[in-house]
Write a structure and sequence with these properties.
alpha+beta
């Protein structure tokens, strides 16, 4: 992203947060966390965008329904991550709890909006750009390997990576079928690249090989 684009995005972000009907709160302050059961909607596409959201525990998927009824997941958000950034006053995607999830609603102060939120917003933008690179790969093994590395990095570089999302979620995130995702999991396990201690956990056994596959 160029300096001009960063500046333009900052002005947009500041403008969104300045134009709100409710009183503002510092980013460090928030309302008590709200619990969302698995599969429940946090906000819907087309709703007014007035706040940001932080994952207290659990995980969130951001998705859009395509014209043919298929679902395209654009992002996952894990514990501690902030989401809900938009370029205008409406949400362009649905946000949904993957599992039992605690969400804090954040209302940043208008006077500090850009300084507080620009680094977080740019990090989200970088992740979106990286996902485009993953989707541009033709090889399903490369996509899944890159996904494992991304989840590991976001969990502090752990070799044993928690996957709160389902295989179907992963497929909709990577632009693959659930059958393809399951086959790649099995293939990587049979080659000793990963272990599967449980349905929602992947152990990275051969990190260098996984990195080579994702390169």
């Amino acid at each position: 992203m160029t300096n001009f684009e960063q500046s333009r995005y900052a002005r947009q972000l500041g403008g969104i947060l300045l134009d709100r009907d409710e009183p503002s709160m510092p980013l460090g302050s928030s309302r008590p966390a709200t619990f969302f059961p698995a599969g429940s909607e946090i906000y819907a596409q087309g709703e007014k965008c007035a706040n940001l959201y932080q994952v207290e525990f659990g995980a969130v998927r951001i998705y859009r329904l395509l014209s043919d009824g298929r679902r395209q997941i654009s992002a996952f958000h894990l514990t501690g991550e902030v989401f809900g950034f938009e370029a205008d006053k409406r949400h362009h995607f649905f946000a949904e709890a993957i599992c039992g999830t605690g969400i804090r609603v954040l209302s940043p102060s208008a006077s500090h909006a850009v300084a507080e939120l620009l680094p977080i917003a740019l990090q989200s933008l970088v992740r979106a750009q990286e996902q485009l690179l993953v989707l541009g790969r033709q090889n399903a093994v490369e996509r899944v390997a890159a996904f494992f590395l991304e989840m590991s990095e976001r969990q502090g570089g752990l070799r044993q990576v928690e996957l709160p999302m389902s295989r179907l979620d992963i497929a909709d995130y990577l632009g693959l079928t659930i059958e393809t995702v399951s086959r790649v999991f099995s293939r990587l396990k049979s080659k000793g690249v990963i272990g599967l201690p449980s349905l929602r956990c992947v152990e990275i056994v051969k990190l260098q090989m996984l990195q080579d596959l994702a390169a």
